[in-house]
Structure formats: C-alpha cells, structure tokens
Amino acid sequence: MDLTFTDEQVMLRDSLGKYLERNYDFETRRAVVAASGGHDPKIWADLAEMGLMALTLPEDRGGLGGSVVDLVAVAEVMGAKLLAEPWLPALPGALALAHGGAGEGGAAALAAFAEGGAPIAFAHEEGRALAEPARVAMTATRKGGELILSGAKRYVVAAEIATHLVVSARVSGAPGARAGIVVALVARDAPGVTLDAYDTVDGRRGANIRFEAVRVPAADVLADEDAGCDLLNAALAPTVLALCADAVGAMGALVKITARYAADRKQFGVPIGSFQALRHRIADMAMAHQKARSTLIVTTAMAEAGACAPRDLRLLKAQVGRMGREVGESAVQVHGGVGMTDELSVGHYFKRLLAMDAIYGAGRLHFRAIGAAA
Amino acid sequence: MNLEMGEALEAFRAEVIAFLDANVTPDLVEAGAKTTSVFAPFEQAMRWQGILAARGWAAPNWPVEHGGAGWSAEQADVFAQECERRGLPPLLPHNLKMIGPLLIDLGTPEQKAKYLPGILSGEDFWCQGYSEPNSGSDLASLRCMAVSDGDDYLITGQKIWTTYAHHANRMFLLVRTSTEGKKQQGITFLLLDSMDLPGLTVKKTIGLDGFPEQCEVFFDAVRVPKANRVGAENDGWSVAKHLLKYERGGGSPGPALRRRLAALREAAARADDGMGGVIADDPAFQERLGMLEADVISVDYHFRHARGGGEPAHDPAYPSMMKTLSSETSQALSAMMIEVAGLEGLPRQLDALAVGANSGPLSDGFDMVAMPYYLNTRAASIYAGSNEIQRDLIARIVIPA
C-alpha cells in the first residue's frame, strides 16, 4: 500500500503552488472576482500552459491521460490558494465530452478547452441539487433524429464564458430511474437557451438556464438513454474527488491561518491561542481536516485501483462537506469580529466550503442513503 | 498511490480462511460476541493469541526477526477482515502492542531473550502499572517509590486502573527513583517477573458495567532486581513516552468499529420503533447512522493513510488525533447501540455475559451487550491520557509558539 503522491505529482503540486503564490495572492483574487466573476484569461491560459485543462482527458482526445490521483493532487492546491477560475466547474463537462460519443463539434470544443479555450459548462443540477444522476428530471423528447430539450437547469457555473453546455435530460422514466437519461452538447447561444446569470457566494459566476424547445442534432448526443446515467457517473466520479480535494485544501489553509491568528492576536495581554477553550477548538479543526483528508486520500487510491463504489463517493462527499462546515465555522469564531468581514480570506474559504457541500446533493441526503442501506 | 489487489492477495485470503476454518472454536466466537470493552474476555483472548502465535500471526507488525509476519498492509487488512467476519475477539494489546514493541526497541538483549517469547505466545500476560490515585492525566507526578537496595529496588506505593492485573503474571510499571529536579526526571521504568511477589497485593475494582476489569495494585517493599529496568535510572519518562506512541496510535480501530456498526444496523432492522415500524426505516435514524458510518470510515482511513506512508505517518499530532477520534467514534457508536436496545438494555445480565454461561440473553445478544459496552466505553476518552490532554497536545503542535 502506497498512499503518497509520486515525484511527478509532487512536482506538479509544487509548480502550481509556486505559480499561485507569485501570481494569485488574496488581493489579486479579490480584484479578479470583483472585475470579472473570478475568471482572468491570463491566469486561465497559464493553467492551460501547465497542462491542467488537458490533465485527465484521454490522450486520443488531446489530453494527457492523467489519473484521478493527478486530479486530486492539483485540486487540493487550488483549494488551498482559493483559486476562483472555473477549472473545477469545467471538469465534468469536459469529462463527459471526452468519454461520450461527441461528434465533430464536441471534439472541437474539447480540443479548444484542453488548450486553454472556453470552459465546457455542466448544466446538470436541478432543484436543490441532485444527489445522484438518476434523479435528473428535466425532459427531452425525440423528434426525427433530433433531441428537443425543454426545462431548466440551475447553478451552471461559468456558463457565460462557455461556448458549449453539457446538458443532462430525461427522455423516459421517472426521476430516480437509471434508464431514460440522455446527455447532450448544446451551443450556449443556441436558439431557446436563456441564461439568468448571477454572482455566487464563493466568487464565481453561475446561471440558471432555461431550455425552450432547444434542438440538438443526433451528432451532439453524447449518450443515449441506455448510457446517460453511466456517462454522468463517469464524469462526476473524478469531479467529486477533485471537489473534495479542493475543499480539503481550503480546510488545511483555514487551520493554518486560524492557528497563526490565535498565536498572534492578543487580548488580556496574552495570545488568545493560550486559552484552552480556543486551543481545543483549533485542535478539533485540525482533526476535522485530517479526517476529511484521509478519507479523501484512501478513497482516491480506491478509485485509482478501480475499487471505489458510488457509495464510497457519497460518503466522502458528505463527510468532507460536514467537516468543511465545521472547520469554516470555527475559523470565523476564532477570528472573532474580523472573521466576519469581507477583508479577510477566512470568510472566502468558508463560503467555498459551503458551496462545495451544497452541490451534487447535500450531506443530509448522502448520509441518509448511507444509513438506509449497507 | 497504489493499493495491492489481485490474485496474490486472494491466495493469501484463502490461506487465512483455511487457517480460521481449522482453528476457530465456538468459545472464541462466543468471546467475541460477548466483548463489551476494548479488552476481550481474558481466557479466550489469550488462547486465541496462543493459536495465532503458533502460526506466526500473533504480532504480524513486529519485525520479522522477532516473530512478525512480514505482511503488507493489504494482507493485514485481509486478515483483520476475515477475523471480523467471524466475530473473533480482539487480542489484548498489553503484550503485543505495548511491552513487546517497547522491549524490541529499548530492551537489553537479556530482556528480549527472557521476555519476548512469553509475550508473543501469550504464556505470560503483562499488565501496565502507570496511573496512581493522585496521578492520572498528570502522570509525571507519580509517587510510587523505588528505593535502591544493592542490586535491587524496593517498591512501595500504589497503582490504580491497572487493567486485568488480576489475570496478569507480569507487570511493567513506572516508579519514582528521585524527587530531585523536574517531576519527569525522577521516573524509572521497571519490569516485574511475577504478580505473586512478597508485599504485592491486587484488589479488583468493579466498573460501571459491573465487571472487574480494572484493579488497584499495592506495593509494600516489593523487591525487584535492577536488571529488570528498561532504560536508565530516572529516564523512565522517555521510555514511557516511547511506549505511549504505541498505546495511542498503535492498532487499527477499524475492524472492531465496523463489526459493531454492522451489528447496530442489523439490530435496528428488527427493533420496534414504537410507531408501528422498525428503527432502521426512520429517516432521522438513517441520517445519523450514515454520519456514524462516515466517522467510522474516516477513523479507519486515517489509520490506513498513516500506515500507507502518507503525511499522518510523519505528523507528531497523529497519535493524539487517532486516540481522540477513535475513542469518540466508539462512544458515539455505543450511544446509538443503547438507543436501539432501548428498554432491553436495562436488565443487568452479568451471568449470561460470561463465556460458557448456562443462561442465554433475555432478548438477544445485541441488547445484552449494548449497555455494558456503552458504559465501559465512557472510559475510552479518559484512559491513555484523557481526550482533553490529547487536545492540549494537538494544539501545542498546531498553534505556533
């Protein structure tokens, strides 16, 4: 058993970390978030230059053929540095394109993304978040060789800057049924696609999207009703691992920042970190981080070995979300009043963790599913 | 990252299964089912250790030259899984995870030759004499005195919370050999060759669960040769700290926790919820059970992460974290056990809990075990350095000075 990163992975982590250290301090991030919803073309291009867009795409699709471990290795660094670029939100769309039956248009969009072009937005979430792909409810109908999409998707991150959306929809069956789900590639400016965009709490740009009789040619159907659910799972599994790695990175940063603050901040003439109540709270933060991180690392190794079931991912996602909120709340509390302000990174890390917990199904749903069946 | 899988591992599993098929007897399984503590029933636990030792599997993690099995981490997992599947009792940690590894690291060649065979085979059982009535979390304040008398020490004083001292035939203990300087500086680590030495008295303490798991041990000028000292005189604190590394972070809590979790799940599926259904179908219960399982898995994975060479293996806070997380997870599990047992957890069934008892449980085995396990497990956050002490230690590492 080896649960360490390889030398190559360590080098990639180091070079990404150094790049962000030099080019992406907290004030730069604030400026990028304020000016352009978290996306700066220069930084995006630099990330692509490092191979991060192509990282886990298959080699025959212009990718580097990296593993989920590679993905986790870099995502943790991005979380630690609070990277707002939509690298992670673009991941599931790109993976669906890479592993689905994309036609010419899809192949071109993917190739462009791999080289630092527009992200592929993933239009999948519905309602209060889908705890599993089989819950997809938005409808699609077949007409001739085409697919007609009608309905709505929510929280589609980076949709405004995307040229293409990967959309999940249901041609048959009820929400919960694995069969009947299709996955389609849709041009963002296709007739009938309407974006209602907004800033998200964690410094990105999201959109609710309406689809009104949007026509999808057969060549842009990435998976038909027998394969849709599997394709979504194939795209989401690495994404959930990366999302959890990002959150674990953010938690680690919060533990460090908070411990440092407790050592420096003085009240009653002594560092507040000398008070046992705060010391124990910080010890709990450190333990929550370690719990989350070890769950991430072992689950990642299982995924790499092909031995990670959907239930294992549920457990990881829910546990990291729960630990993340615990760490975030404690970080704000230890910082006191200043932790409540927009000026400090603490609150921004916290909100990133809250966003992570809310997407792809809240912890409550996953915990309940785990409790309901062994 | 790499997890070993495949045919070689499955061949090993077949070997383990064949061994268990040939050697597991009903009384061992009964002892496993009636384990209401981290410490299994003594007689069966030691018999099982003897069987494993004969096969070379009693202390798989020890260095091979001292009787370790040289297993990979995956092989150790397979072995633990198969033992867990049959509900076998855990081995007692004192010999195999405490004094054995300590002597391998710090014992003299004579001590190793004399003691390690009996430690491994289970012919001897060692109890641990650390705590004293006025020295619990503040262990270094201990006052049990050892006075030099030629080639011997004469020990006078008292130990408390000495697990299974009434079963033990040997003891390792901390004594005070000097009152000069800092309290940590005058402590010495000694080995007792017998529990029947003149001047030595063992008195059982009945716990909340009704069992005499713990003991008090009284010393009145008990004579111990100086050759039985581990480390230098007055340097016992560093010896003890070395051992604490094994005690706090030593074994995987995963298998035992997973087995109890499975039993909890099964019990909830048949337990009347008082509202016309069973507890297992209650969504609120399901959510909490899911969280509990996640915590069990996280503790298990934290252990594996360290064993697989990841960052926790080099984290000085790891032993304290592991101790805190595993004890609090077992407490949360035990609380859900008595919740599911409900009224059926209230009858005190000490006779039926004995291995080989003539009487069976009043309702079922789960209900019988739930309350004593819950009560006993309150100790998990107290012993081996209370969890408050552990959090202090973690904070000292995490918060910059």
UniProtKB/TrEMBL annotation, chain A:
Needed cofactors: FAD
The segment(s) forming the Acyl-CoA oxidase/dehydrogenase middle domain are: 126-209
Q: Which UniProt keywords apply?
A: FAD, Flavoprotein, Oxidoreductase
What are the protein's GO molecular function terms?
acyl-CoA dehydrogenase activity; flavin adenine dinucleotide binding
UniProt domain Acyl-CoA dehydrogenase/oxidase C-terminal: residue ranges: 227-372
User: By its UniProt entry, which CDD domains does this protein fall under?
Assistant: ACAD
Q: In what residue span(s) does the Acyl-CoA dehydrogenase/oxidase N-terminal domain sit?
A: 6-81
What family classification does the UniProt entry report for this protein?
Belongs to the acyl-CoA dehydrogenase family.
* The protein's name in its UniProt record: Acyl-CoA dehydrogenase
Organism name: Albimonas donghaensis
UniProtKB/TrEMBL annotation, chain B:
Assigned keywords, A-Z: FAD, Flavoprotein, Oxidoreductase
Residue ranges of every copy of the Acyl-CoA dehydrogenase/oxidase C-terminal domain listed in the record = 234-398
Its GO CC terms are: plasma membrane
Presence of the UniProt keyword Transmembrane helix in the record = no
Q: Name one GO molecular function term.
A: oxidoreductase activity, acting on the CH-CH group of donors
Q: Locate the Acyl-CoA dehydrogenase/oxidase N-terminal domain: which residues?
A: 7-123
Give every Acyl-CoA oxidase/dehydrogenase middle domain span: 127-222
- Which cofactor(s) does the record list? FAD
Q: Which domain of life is it from?
A: Bacteria
The record's similarity note reads: Belongs to the acyl-CoA dehydrogenase family.
Q: What is the name of this protein? A: Acyl-CoA dehydrogenase
Lineage, broadest ranks:
Bacteria, Pseudomonadati, Pseudomonadota, Alphaproteobacteria, Rhodobacterales
